[in-house]
Specification:
Layout: H1 3-6, H2 18-35, H3 42-49, H4 63-88, H5 92-106, H6 108-114, H7 126-146, H8 158-175, H9 179-182, H10 189-205
Helix pairs in contact: 2-3, 2-4, 2-6, 4-5, 4-6, 4-7, 5-6, 5-8, 5-10, 7-8
Length: 212
């Protein structure tokens, strides 16, 4: 037993300890959620994580590596949440729109990086690209549930693109645009999503909001 343990002092973790890597990612996510990706720097991450300025470099070569890891984590979480919704939903259009918006609002730090092609790391980091591809497959599954007849042929990407554009546009307006401030007190985000899904289903699919 070390003297530090005997006197009740916990020795500092090695920079290579996995908790330090997690602390780096959590600090980076918090910075991006509050101030956007442009505010991220290795020095600020170290300061927020309360570690030495060199500690982040034990896990990430540079800022781009941190951003790629955040994207990878976000893609994987997104795919899991989306598939869980699809497995349990009787109304995939409304439920998946809600899941998309909820993910963006709960994981702003991830969301603000995942869809920025200049920083997300899909072109430079293999694991990030694989996670992004899997998340995209979850979106294709969403489209197939909404309208199974649109899954093949030369227009197979049309419906997924329309659904993705709708969900992403709504989420972006809520977290980075003025929409959240425009909602009246009696209208919740979920109620707005449900209303949008109902109109969307009628316009795009010629059905009510119970399209499945």
């Amino acid at each position: 037993m070390s003297s530090c343990t005997v006197c009740g002092v916990v020795p500092p973790k090695s920079p290579d300890h996995p908790d330090v890597k997690r602390a780096v990612l959590d600090a980076a996510i918090a910075i991006i959620a509050a101030d956007g990706p442009d505010a991220l720097s290795m020095r600020e991450v170290a300061r927020r994580a309360d570690i030495s300025h060199q500690a982040p470099y034990h896990h990430f070569t540079d800022r781009a590596g941190i951003l790629a890891a955040i994207s990878e984590e976000g893609y994987r979480a997104f795919a899991i949440e989306f598939r869980e919704t699809l497995e349990s939903s009787a109304n995939p259009l409304a439920d998946c729109l809600r899941t998309y918006v909820r993910f963006a609002m709960r994981h702003r730090g991830h969301f603000r990086v995942m869809f920025r092609s200049d920083i997300c790391g899909v072109e430079t980091h293999e694991h990030t690209r694989a996670a992004a591809d899997d998340a995209y497959l979850a979106l294709l599954d969403f489209a197939a549930r909404v309208d199974p007849t649109a899954a093949g042929g030369p227009g197979a990407l049309t419906l997924p693109t329309i659904l993705w554009s709708q969900a992403h546009g709504l989420a972006t307006l809520l977290i980075d645009g003025p929409l959240a401030r425009k909602l009246p007190p009696e209208l919740s985000v979920n109620a707005l999503v449900d209303a949008v899904a109902a109109v969307f289903a009628g316009t795009i699919l010629g059905t009510g909001s119970n399209a499945n």
